[in-house]
Amino acid sequence: MDMKKRITLELRNRSPIVELVVDNSRSADGEVEGLTDEFTELEFLSVVNVGLSSLAKLPSLPKLRKLELSDNNLSGSLETLAQKCPNLTYLNLSGNKIKELSTLEALQNLKSLQSLDLFNCEITSLEDYRESVFELLPQVTYLDGFDQEDNEAPDSEADDEGDDDDDDEDN
């Protein structure tokens, strides 16, 4: 199902929309489709694995705090996030085509950003990757789920879900 159709379905009988998940829908041209400036109340948006290669058409989302963009084809255009989503506290870019530290410079303007995920991005193989990102983005407390001292980020959803099954995945 394409992204625009999926968003239309999600909108039925819901107003205002605070949370929107359109994971695994398809973006026809690698752009955000179907999201408009009407989504001013949106606080959580998940656009995982939809084939995004650009964020240029992202509308202004002033209340957005959590943005999931993992498993897309993003390699840049992150300055759009600072312009359109100034209050982001959590950003997941894992599984994208982010290769260079300079790409992340655009995130310096996200003053509220506390948690950034870049798992499975080429940038993680850079020497001193973690130190460099923390230096570049001093407002970020958690990178890839851990702070600078390698303490794990508290999972805000751990209270809702049974957490016991996760322990034996470390083998």
Top keywords for this entry?
six-stranded parallel β-sheet; repeat; 4 helices; alpha/beta; 171 residues; Leucine-rich repeat, LRR (right-handed beta-alpha superhelix); disordered C terminus
Explain how this protein is built.
The chain is an alpha/beta fold and 171 residues long. It has one domain (3-153): Ribonuclease Inhibitor (Leucine-rich repeat, LRR (right-handed beta-alpha superhelix)), CATH 3.80.10. The chain contains four helices and six strands. A six-stranded parallel sheet has the order 1-2-3-4-5-6, covered by helices on one side. β3, α2 and β4 form a beta-alpha-beta unit. The protein is globular. The chain starts with a helix and ends in a 28-residue tail after the last strand. It comes from Xiphophorus couchianus (Monterrey platyfish). Residues 126-144 form the U2A'/phosphoprotein 32 family A C-terminal domain. Pfam families: LRR_9. Its main location: cytoplasm. Residues 145-171 are annotated as: Disordered.
